[in-house]
Known about the structure:
Elements: H1 20-23, E1 27-36, E2 46-56, E3 62-71, H2 82-88, H3 102-119, E4 124-129, H4 132-145, E5 153-160, H5 161-169, H6 174-181, H7 193-213
Parallel strand pairs: 1-4, 4-5
Antiparallel strand pairs: 1-2, 2-3
Amino acid sequence: MLNDTDEVSFLPNDSSDCDLASRFRKFLPVIIDVETGGFNKDTDALLEVAAVLVRMDSRGMLQRGDTIAFHIEPFDGANIEQSALDFTGIDLDCAGRDAVDEDIALKEVFRAVRDEVKQQDCNRAVLVGHNAHFDLGFLHTAADRNKIKRNPFHPFSCFDTATLSGLAFGQTVLAKACESAGIEFSNKSAHSAAYDAEKTADLFCHIVNKWKTLGGWPLEE
């Protein structure tokens, strides 16, 4: 859900200098987090995916928007490392997990992102993630595995909040970066795709907004 929308209005799509499309040269930033059965995108299971949209308010500041998240059934023949399950706390046998096939999850995420790309007058989505190439690799590999053609994400470009946090705060671990930014972070809730994606979105918005308040955007002519 959008933060503080009772008090902040969003820019119409035809706004000029600080609309979302103009800010990232027609790229729509979408925060993605995945939880997996290991580190190998080709062999290891995709177990959770979450996408968080961002919006720009009437002051030109980014805010976290809606979250789309799914628990996912491992694909046939997927490798799942016990160490990965221990790290994430995912219980594949939990009756309340309510998992869906990965093609259903990805199609729903992609549909929501394509709708937002159109609404924001952008050309394409760009993945924002913490150590983003990991999430990007799993996302594209799963889309290829399921022969999903309408993938809205750029095939190789991404925005990495680990890099941005290293620049802004001297921290690259998500929890530490959030702490430095004054963003509440629960280690108990971490390693859920939805929670991590939302905290990554808060961090991304904070860094982009801070750069603006420091005078770094819009660029001086």
